[in-house]
Structure formats: structure tokens, C-alpha cells
Amino acid sequence: MVKLSKFKSVKDYFDSQSAVTLKVLFALRSIIQETLPESEELLNYEMPAYPLIKGGKRDKQIMIAGYKTFVGFYVGNNIVNNFEHQLANYSIGKASIQFPLNKPLPKELIIQIILYKKNLVCML
Fold it and tell me: Where are the domains of the chain?
């Protein structure tokens, strides 16, 4: 059986979000697009994704997702570990960070994380 995609585009994904979640997702998206102006926006694993290099697949992308109380910032394995002290006030997983909807995004930290991962990807 073939799994049908819930979203046909990034626009469909954003259109499915609540107004509160969408506001924070758009703020996170804006930070990503300012930091990676050459990156195309695409849908991967049913989430908005941003390749760090042209044609970069999942391990060479960052992704975002909206939830009821937070937005997820998916940066990949081991990236989060390098910023664990700066991320002490956030819920983190092996490959992701949860930014609560009711707090400002840490813009400078997000930029540092994006550039750190991009530098790693470019070394490969």
C-alpha cells in the first residue's frame, strides 16, 4: 500500500497550522531564509525543509515543524550536543530543539546552529 502525503506543498503545510503556531513558524522560517538566502524551501518528511547545499538530502537539511505548544527545529544528529549549554532552557532531542510558542526565538543562537551545521556539511 502506498502512503498518501498529507501535504502537497510547503504552503499546504503552513495553511494547516494554527495562527499562533504559524506566527512562530514564520519567524523561524525568516531566520533560516536570512541565514541561507540561497536555500530553496521544499517539503521533506511532510515538513518544510531547507537544504544547506544545493541538492542536499535529509542529512544536509534543516527542517521545521509546528505543534500545539512549540515549533520543532530539526538540525540533525550530534548538532544539538555542541550547543547543549546554550539550549539548557529548551527541550531538546538527539536531533531537534523545541522552541515554545510563548517565548521569543533565540535568533542569534539559531543562526549559530545553522552556520555550524552548514560548515560541517560543506566539509563532507
Answer: 10-123
Confidence of residue 76 (pLDDT cuts 50, 70, 90): confident
3: Cβ–Cβ under 8 A, 6 or more apart, which residues? none
In contact, 122 and 114? CB cutoff 8 Å: no
Conformation bin of residue 63: beta by default, left when phi > 0, alpha when psi is -120 to 50: beta
As beta bridge partners, residue 6 has: none
Give me the CATH code for the 10-123 domain, please: 3.90.1150.200
Which tens digits make up the pLDDT trace of 57-68?
888 999 999 999
